[in-house]
Structures are given as C-alpha cells and as structure tokens.
Amino acid sequence: MLAGELYDALDPELVSLRRDCRARCAQLNATFGAPDGDRRAVLDALFGAPNDAWVEPPFYCDYGFNIGLGTGVFFNFNCVVLDVMPVTIGDCTLIGPAVQIYTATHPLDAATRSTRLEYAKPVVIGRDVWIGGAAVICPGVTIGDRVVVGAGAVVTKDVANDCVVAGNPARVIRRAT
C-alpha cells in the first residue's frame, strides 16, 4: 500500500488499523467544548506524534499516522483525509470547512477495478496555504507554498508556489507578482 502498489483494503490488518483510527476520531469528535488539554492528547494519539494543530470536530481520516503536520496547521469543521499514503501539510496552513484530501484511488481499467484492489498516491501541501471550504484535493497532488485554493475547487494537478487556483478542475486564476 505505502509503495503505491495495488492492495486489498479489506486486509484484516488494514481493517483493524482503520477501526482503531475511527475510535480515535470518535474520541476527538466528542471533545467539542472539552478543555484544550483533553483535545491535545487525542490529537497526539490520532496523528501519532505531538503537534500543535487545531482541529475542529468533526474530523475523519483513515489511519491518522500517515498525516504529517507542520506547526500552526488548522482544520475547520467536517474535514476528511483519506490518508492511505502520506499526506504532508506545511506550517501555517489553513484548511476550510468540509475540505476533503484523498490519497486513495482506484484503477481506471474496469477489469482490474472489479478485483476490488486499489492503490494510492501521496499528497503534499506546502507552507502558508489556505484551502477554501469544500475544496477537494485529489490523489498525487502537490500544492506549493503560499497558495490559495478557492472554495469548492477540485485540485487534480500540481499547483506551483504563489498561485490562486479555483474551479473544477482547479486552474490558476492569479499568480503573485
């Protein structure tokens, strides 16, 4: 799976890992209104390392430990991260409500897809990025530093540093001067 090869998502070990992650997400989602220290311990357990991310519940992910966070990362309400492969998010990145970040994908060939095998591609999001509400980041995408992703954008291709992208599929609408 982590090598980017076809894998069986119903493998018992993977199912168990996702079940554990769902329990940690449920714990996080139950911390709404709880003291910050309680939420911090749950976030550290979910992501597998101490971090200073602020995550507004509800939040959902597949494994948690495949999400690498820089300092000052913020997730607004109702975000989903399918972290089959690594998702790397740089410092001071702001992620709007209902943003979805996907690494999981499926074969385009119907015969292979019917085997129920799938694969994944990593996602990298740079520093000082702002992702607007309900944007979708597709598998294998790298988003550069200081990028703004417009609300509702579907990012299917890499984005260079210092751009504003919007639309479906997302396209550059402005570059920094």
Give a short summary of the structure:
The protein has 177 residues and is α/β, with parallel strands linked by helices. 19% of the residues lie in helices and 29% in strands.
Helicity range = 10-25%
The number of distinct β-strands equals 19
**What do we call the CATH homologous superfamily?**
Hexapeptide repeat proteins
CATH class: Mainly Beta
* Estimated radius of gyration: 16 Å
Shape: globular
Indicate the structural class: alpha/beta
**Number of distinct helices:** 3
Overall mean pLDDT stands at 95
CATH second-level architecture: 3 Solenoid
Fraction of residues in β-strands: 25-35%
Largest sheet: 7 strands, mixed
Low-confidence stretches: none
Provide the succession of SSEs.
Answer: EHHEEEEEEEEEHEEEEEEEEE
Q: Could you say what the CATH topology is called?
A: UDP N-Acetylglucosamine Acyltransferase, domain 1
How many domains make up the coordinates?
1
- Placed side by side, the strands forming the largest sheet appear as 2-5-8-13-16-18-19
Distance between the termini: 40 Å
Characterization of the model:
The protein has 177 residues and is of the alpha/beta class. It has a single domain (7-175), classed as Hexapeptide repeat proteins (UDP N-Acetylglucosamine Acyltransferase, domain 1), CATH 2.160.10.10. It has 3 helices and 19 strands. The strands form 4 sheets. Strands 2-5-8-13-16-18-19 form a 7-stranded mixed beta sheet, with no helix packed on it. A hairpin with a 4-residue loop joins strand 18 (163-166) and strand 19. The longest helix is centred in the first third of the chain and has 18 residues, at 12-29. The chain is globular, with a radius of gyration of 16 Å. The model has no long low-confidence stretch (mean pLDDT 95).
